[in-house]
Amino acid sequence: MTQERDEAAGVPGAGSGRQARPKVVLGVSGGIAAYKACELARRFTESGHEVRAVPTRSALHFVGAATWSALTGNPVATEVWESVHEVPHVRIGQHADLVVVAPATADLLAKAAHGLADDLLTNTLLTARCPLVFAPAMHTEMWEHPATQENVATLRRRGAVVIEPAVGRLTGKDTGKGRLPDPDALFDVCRRVLARGVAGAGCDLAGRHVVVSAGGTREPLDPVRFLGNRSSGKQGYALARTAAARGARVTLVSANSALPEPAGVDLVRVGSARELREAVTEAAADADAVVMAAAVADFRPASYADGKIKKKDGQDPEPLALVRNPDILAGLSADRPRAGQVVVGFAAETDDVLAHGRAKLAAKGCDLLVVNEVGESKTFGAEENEAVVLGADGSETAVPHGPKEALAETVWDLVARRFPGQG
User: Fold this and answer.
1) Which residue is catalytic, options 123, 229, 372, 385?
2) What is the per-residue pLDDT across 349-370, written as a single tens digit (0 to 9) for each?
3) Is 385 tagged catalytic?
4) What GO cellular component term, any one, is given (predicted)?
5) Under CATH, domain 209-417 is a member of which superfamily?
6) Is 177 marked within a binding site?
7) From 88's CA, which of 194, 219, 287, 389 has a CA 20 to 30 Å away?
């Protein structure tokens, strides 16, 4: 694999001589979602990672050892008594650059939280000094049980990334939260965790709850028309994915975005500015940070027509009367539900970008304001962005043109420094 392909795949250190093939341990516990981990293993191997699958005995009831060996190109063991001369219960964890458990059952999470080690996978978790990622999958009742939630909180406090399960069809006829996220989305989280380095260093948001808004609000005029904007939601989704990879519990309030749901977030879909305000305010009640990346309409139609507004021959349409929408960012900044909450706003400007940005920062009262220039062919819908992050303390942080994930990383760096006690 060339350096260019390695870098595109997210392989850290590629071409630098540090390590050409990061070592990934894929732990698989005994849940029906184990079959999805096969695709995750394939994504890792195809992108240049060396993968060692460590299934539990229960996991082998769902996917056999031969499958894991064929997918990874490495032998498969489940017991500490196999290949004892290699001391696998110590060596596998010691040599790993990342350990990801997908799916992680309630039983596996409990063992990991309490330091139990009765098989090769749980021994590996104890000996690993690299980042740990858990992707839980179980029935909703099991996920919501106080014991499971306490175990998850314990793992997050220790710096592990515990990805929120998705909502959808479970086994049988059941539907709810507890579904293993899409393997591609899981791989994206793991790639980001690997890129940030050693255990703990990349999980500076562990134990934090953050709220991110994304997309563009739509203000209905009649059943078929609305006032809207060009926002795709890509920057907000990048912020949500990045926060999840850094260990945060993420609530993503999405306004009219068609983007796929990121792994590890609680997704709340909204339409109008008033719906967005209600959802963000509710989620912010226990949040450590709120990042308002959504493009919120300043105005809405003064009245709503129950039927489609018809065109009348020979007549111009009636003037459209508008009223102001609530200023969500200013409201959040002025009425913070908890001490130390960090509030971040976004300002999309078309001219005098920094001057308008500084004025808006003062008016809104937020801690940080991300200011960028927008237009019909700038920022909206693009994969790249560039911005200046203005701080209420007078700081300015320029983010050069690049992927929206890079801007997201900078924003979370600045947010993390502003948490109480961080200095």
Assistant:
1) 229
2) 777 788 889 999 999 999 999 9
3) no
4) phosphopantothenoylcysteine decarboxylase complex
5) CoaB-like (3.40.50.10300)
6) no
7) 194
